[in-house]
């Protein structure tokens, strides 16, 4: 991804445009992963500090 970004910037693209192109490429990679494996689970277990004593420190 870094090489792709650098190549776009060196070719004269604005940095924000190059960043958006990289994000779009990452999104396509994620969607291709989901299409190839519909049972893919990104997070198996939800870890939340909702009921943690650490939440009430502030």
Map the helices and strands.
Elements (H helix, E strand, L loop, with lengths): L1 H9 L4 H22 L22
Helix pairs in contact: 1-2
Task: Report what the structure shows.
The chain has one domain. The radius of gyration is 19 Å and the shape is flat. The model has no long low-confidence stretch (mean pLDDT 83). The protein is mainly alpha-helical and 58 residues long. Helices cover 53% and strands 0% of the residues. It has helices at residues 2-10, 15-36. Helix 1 runs antiparallel to helix 2. The N and C termini lie far apart (39 Å).
Short description:
With 58 residues, the protein is an all-alpha fold. It has 2 helices and no strands.
The largest sheet, given as strand count, sense and whether it forms a barrel, is: none
The arrangement of helices and strands along the chain is HH
Give the overall average pLDDT.
83
What's the total helix number? 2
Shape descriptor reads flat
| Quantity of strands, as a count | 0
| Percent strand | under 5%
Structural class, judged by helices and strands? Answer: mainly alpha
State the end-to-end distance.
39 Å
Counted up, domains total 1
Radius of gyration (CA) equals 19 Å
Percent helix: 40-55%
Low-confidence stretches: none
């Amino acid at each position: 991804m870094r090489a792709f970004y650098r190549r776009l910037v060196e070719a004269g693209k604005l940095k924000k445009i190059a960043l958006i192109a990289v994000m779009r490429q990452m999104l396509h990679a994620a969607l291709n992963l989901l299409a190839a494996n519909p049972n893919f689970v990104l997070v198996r277990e939800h870890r939340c500090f909702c009921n943690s004593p650490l939440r009430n420190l502030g």
